[in-house]
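Troubleshooting log. The previous structure file for this entry was overwritten by mistake, so regenerating from the original sequence record. Sequence copied from the archived sheet and checked twice against the printout by T.R.
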Amino acid sequence: MRLGIGEIVVVLVLALLFFGPSKLPQLGNSLGQAIKSFKKGLSSLHDEADAPAEQEANRLPEKADDGARTPAASDSVAAPGNKR
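Regenerated output below.
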């Protein structure tokens, strides 16, 4: 559903007749604040939804894959005469 120029003009003229020229700036200001508050609420809701995923990622230790190998218990003590 798209509004054309004609429909927008009709709505604006009706708003002007209904609210009067002195109330339109106040109405526009209130509408702008409502939209701003709505967007802020949505972003905070989105941040709250992402928080558990971030906490899970921070809780799990990252595996360091730098090519270094940790010695196992069998590596530290070699039997005499065994060659590797």
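The mean pLDDT is 77. Archived copy saved in two places this time.
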